[in-house]
Each structure stands twice: as structure tokens, then as C-alpha cells.
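User: I'm designing a mutation panel for Aldehyde dehydrogenase and want to avoid disrupting the core. Could you give me a predicted structure to guide residue selection? Please restate the sequence first so the numbering is unambiguous.

Assistant: Good idea. Sequence first, for numbering, then the predicted C-alpha cells:
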Amino acid sequence: MSLEGAGRQRLFVGGSWVEPEGGYYGVVDPATEETVGWAPEASRDQVHAACAAAREAFGPWSRTTPEERAAVLGRTARIIGERFASYAELAQAETGATTGTARAMQVGVGAARFRRYARVEPAEWAVAPQINEAGPMGKAGVMGALAVRQPVGVVTCVTSYNNPWANPAGKIAPALAMGNTVVVKPAPQDPLSVYRMAEALEAAGVPAGVVNVVSGRAVEIGEAAVSSPDVDMVSFTGSTAVGQRIAEVCGRDMRRQLMELGGKGAAVVFDDADVGSAVAGIGTTFSFYSGQICTAPTRVLAQRGVYDRLVEQLAAYAGRLTVGDPRAAGTVVGPVISAEHRDRVESYVETGRKEGAVVVAGGERPPYGKGFYVAPTLLADCTNDMRVAREEIFGPVVCVIPFDDEEEGIALANDTDYGLIDYVWSGDVARAFRVARRLRAGGVGINTVGRNMEAPFGGFKKSGVGRDVGSYALHAYSEVQAIVWPG
């Protein structure tokens, strides 16, 4: 068993549940401020031991057939389904997510990602033959070629706090499917769910050392997991600042990396847009994970003909949202992850006020005695040079900026350090697609904030390096080898 005593969680290293050398720390429910359980604090040596275990397990695991690996992932998905209720309850307690989000978007999506990568796909494909003339390299002939996806090796997965199921599953499942082994370093705020995932993998028959989970609040824990000489690749989801530090470490050893970093998504709303659709889409920033999501359309660029109407309807939308206990049936907006993060979000709202933004909704702390709540907040009359428009707030805060014509809208959207997902709302489909192609972002939603879960996901500029999701994740967690022969 992984639990000891009153909710004391052990590390998962080399197929064993191990006592943490750094002791334990409390995991806090953001809604009640009560202790959910006790997470293990690994030592640097234990992180290195996890990396060494993954290295030892890599050879045998990489030589298993794709069908064998897929069977393990499929069994994992089934086990998660069998334990769904308890897993969702824990995820809600750790993250403060609403019941619907914890069930559908956290545990539900986590299980779906294991099912997705239990589907075996071809790992090789033919390359067009090439006719070579006689020369220094040999006689004339036809050269055949095959491109083969090979596993990278040991992958360190550093995961985000906003979704302790979908995010780690989106790394672990494709990495294992390609024959890699993993060391998972979960976010310190909500690591217990990731240990439940490890339990499900263990029950599904994953061999010892193929999956390892080590947690801790100390910076040196993450550093050890990234810099270990046993690690071949780092997959990170989190802030751009931390991603830049990880990239520096990876660069010294030419270590592969997959980075899904911050975002400041622009929602370009034209005069001819369906305002109701735009309000509903942009409004997800207020409710979905309480704005703690990098894909949120937090920077609204509204053409002047629709600006006043859009601000008015967004303010009304924000004002109607029920903020409170995420376990209550009618709650739409739960707490943010911690008191420190609540203070950070509130400080951005105050900065916006000082910069000249007008607070037309929210801006005040909800009147609850406990819990880390932030009211859905709308900042109007912003300019693109304000901090609230340039920096990722990661909370239920939307700023609105007016623009005159298409060219200005595109220029404002691209005037940012980020480039993860942007959005366009317009009744003119041709214009929407024309504008989308000019936006410097890894993804663009046209008249929707929905996602296609087979489409490539990743960012331009400081929003990341590489692409994952669907088949793109299989490429991300593999090296491509060329095999050439005379035809």
C-alpha cells in the first residue's frame, strides 16, 4: 500500500513505495483550508535513485512490443474508471475544482488519455526511394529508406498544479507508449492525485522502474529530476520563467525538451461577431479552473463597434456566476490554489486600477471566512502596454482592449511575448480564417474555445517548445531514426 498512517503518502521509486527522507508536508484544500493529506518530501538522493531506476528499466521496457505497452495503458484506464469516484473526490480536495471539473476534466480526461495511447499506431513509415548516380559513394543505384520512431529514453515529467490528472496522463501515457520510462515530479500543491495514478499503473502491471513519482516543495527536488545524468528528456508544463531555467539546464547536455509554458490568449472580436457566443467563450476564463489555465482568452481585443456591448455583456455574465464551495451543486467558480496565489491575482487587479483600467465587474474578495476565493473580474479600457495585458495573471481576470480595424487587431494580438492559443470571433468565416493564419500562436479557435484533442498543442515564442496531444505526442516522445539500404 502507498498510504501509511493518517494519509501519509510514500514515494514511488523503482516499483516500491518508499519512505521520504525529507519527511512530509500538508496538502491543503483551497476551499476549506483543511489538510487533505500528507505528501512526501523526497531527498536529492531519492530523486537520483528514481532516475537510476528508470534508466535500468528502460532497456527491457523499450524492447517490449507496442501491443504489450498498449495493454498496460488500457488496463490503467479501466482501473482509473473503477476508482473514479474516490479519485475525483481527492482531485477536488487538492485543487478546489468544482465537482463537474474534477470528474469530467480532471479524472475523466486523465483516463481518456490512457485509453487514447492504448491504441497502437505505426512507428515507421516509408520514405520515397532516391535514384543515385555513380560517384565517390559507390555505384549508381536506387536507395530505399525507412523512418522509424525510437524511444528517447528516460523522461522527467514536471507537471502543473491546475490539473493533476490530465496533465501528467498526457505526458506519461504517450511516453510509455513509445517505450520510454518516466520520472514524474508533480506540482507541490496537489501531488497526491499523481500517486493515485501511479497506483493504477502499478495495478495494471507496469514493470518496476518504468514509472517513478517523487514529490517535494524544495527547488532542489525539481532541479535534481531535470539535471540527473540518467535523464534524456524533460517534459514540463508551467510558467515561462521556470521553463527558461529548465531549458538552460537541458541545453548544457543537449537534452531533449517539450515545454508547454505560459499564455496570454488574445480573443479578437470583430463588429460582426455573435456577441453571445463570444461572451460565453471568453467567460470560461472566469469559471474554468478559476482562470488558472494557460489557454484562457484573458486578453480581449474588441472592435470599437462592438466594444461597449461586449463589455456590458461580459460584466453581466461575470456578475451572474456563483462563487463558492466547489462541492455545492450551483457553484461555477471555486477557489484558486493557494492564499499566495490569491494575493498575486489580487495584486494584478490593483495594478490594473493604478494603470488606468476600469474595474467593471469583481475586483473585491468574496466575503467568505475560509477558502482562497477571487471574484470574476473584468477590466475595461485597457491598453496593450499595461502589465495586466502583458503578463499572465492565471486567475479569473479578463482585460478588454479596443481596436479600430483588422490590421490593428492583428498587430495588438501579436504584440505579446506569448503565443499559445488565440481566438477569433467573426461572422465572416473567410476573414476569421485569414486573421487566424496571421496570428503568431500555436493554436487559434474560430468562434469557439473548444479543442480538438487530436490537433497539435503547443506554443510560439515564450509559450513553449514542441507539440503534443494525439499522434503529435508520439513524435514528441520519440527520436526519428533513418534506415537506408540499396534497392
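For picking mutation sites, this is relevant: Residues 1-6 have pLDDT under 50 and may be disordered. The two ends are 56 Å apart (CA to CA).
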